[in-house]
Amino acid sequence: MAASTSLPFLLIFSSMLLFLSSAFLILAAPESALITHLPGFNGTFPSKHYSGYVTVDESHGRNLFYYFVVSEGNPSEDPVVLWLNGGPGCSSFDGFIYEHGPFNFQSGGSTGSMPQLHLNPYSWSKVSNILYLDSPAGVGMSYSNDKSDYTTGDLKTASDSHKFLLKWYELYPEFQQNPFYISGESYAGVYVPTLASEVAKGIEDGLKPTINFKGYMVGNGVTDTVFDGDALVPFAHGMGLISNDLFQEANAACHGSYWNPANESCQTMLNRVDWELRNLNIYDILEPCYHTLEIREVLSGNSRLPSSFRRLGETNRPLPVRKRMFGRSWPLRAPVQDGYVPTWPELGSSSVPCMNDEVATSWLNNEEVRSAIHAQPASLLGQWELCTGNIYFSHDAGSMIKYHKNLTEQGYRALIFSGDHDMCVPFTGSEAWTRSLGYQIVDEWRPWYFHEQVAGYIQGYEHNLTFLTIKKETMLINFCCKLMHSFK
Fold first, then answer.
1. What is the C-alpha to C-alpha distance for residues 443 and 484, in angstroms, rounded to an integer?
2. How far is CA 169 from the centre of its chain?
3. Cα–Cα 20 to 30 A to 166, which of 238, 245, 351, 401?
4. Would you say 205 and 166 are in contact if contact means Cβ atoms under 8 Å apart?
5. pLDDT of the residue at 336
6. At what angle are helices 264-277 and 244-254 packed, to 10 degrees?
7. What are phi and psi of 285, to 5 degrees?
């Protein structure tokens, strides 16, 4: 979400977990960053939490905010996993609050009231030290004293995130030997490989502290204009969302290329496709785009989902907001291209369609919460927003395919995973570009099982590249934690 919110969940398999000699972790982390309590939570933290700012540009006062959850398992051996949400312009508290953080958030019952926090049994912190980062400056709780820094792009974001990591490891030296992975979803399909390349280059250049970088993971990630742009129509057809007749007509008119219609006939067919898909939840086509109290009550009463997931599609906004569908910060059938990437407000929507950020907004804009997590107050920073319109962002790194090829050929592990019902960045595009690398298949496409049930489908390539699709129920309920353990 704020990146792709069919909520694809991260897989860390056993070959990514390396044994270290230390059996006991002595924390050298800054005590000033320690979180001692969180408003809305009355229990005991199962592990230590830290948060605060790292300054990546002293002269400008450019500061990136992080929230670090120490592993509830074996902190000295478990990997450090950096999580990045997409946008561009969306806060990684999206992942923390709504996806795989240490808590499930329950609404306080009335607008603006304090949410109640309960321990999340499927948190990634069960098996990893998880680091959430708001990036670039101007997003979430991150900020700069020089507003010119809010004009940014892929390459500057990657450079700043790398500077952040180097300084963060100086603050937390006890984690320098742990395996390190970079992960994220949606537009983090750009953030992750560009940052991974910066980290790999830093290691090659001998930058200190040395980061024990092992690989990266991308979920439903933006990758390439053509592959991403051509993915939607085949996905919609394969999922039974458009008729075979419409698919055949669109395919004939567009000659199999849908992202940049070359003639009026193609445009007409694509407009018909848009019409058929207009009322769906683009991030999870099986979930409702809430519009009425009755739908909410039916789902909540019968759902097996954790409480923090049950209202993700809820909105008080009426149906007409769905005149256009968006893929984070770009309209449907208009994949990210080189140059300026518009923000949500510029696209005519004050918030992400079908997504409710009420719980996160009320919690993170509470001054007691901000104080507890060492974030700047709203009087200095402004209100927290799930996806901001404060930045002027340019896609200036081009296609990510060259980054993936370079990184995997250097020996870094890559897991490309897709929720199979995400229409924002469909799995059809991710599957196509991974094949385009030309790598030999070493593990044929096959079902992947968990508890004797098909949990998804997996295909392995040479150079430690893996492509994985994830079934919806597994993805939402138990994928993040239980499936990690199953690969041990």
1. 19
2. 22
3. 401
4. no
5. 80
6. 150
7. -65, -15
User: Domains, the chain, ranges and CATH?
Assistant: 14-226+397-486 (3.40.50.1820)
Cβ atoms < 10 Å from Cβ of 332? 18
pLDDT, tens only, 325-361 = 333 334 445 578 888 887 665 665 555 566 667 888 9
Output the pLDDT for position 379: 93
Coil/strand/helix, residue 170: helix
Spell out a b/e string for 279-294, using b for 16 or more CB atoms within 10 Å of the CB, else e: ebbbbbbebbbbbeee
In the numeric block, the tokens 């603006």 are attached to 112
- pLDDT tens per residue, range 429-480: 999 999 999 999 999 999 988 778 888 899 999 999 999 888 764 444 344 4
The DSSP result for 307-372, as a single string, is HHHHTTT--SS-GGGGGS-BSSSSBTT----SEEE--TGGGT-SS-TT---HHHHHHHT-HHHHHH
The token duo for 478 is: 């138990």
**pTM, entire model:** 0.86
Quote the pLDDT of residue 290: 56
Closest CA to 115 of 372, 359, 364, 369: 359
End-to-end CA separation in angstroms for the chain: 28
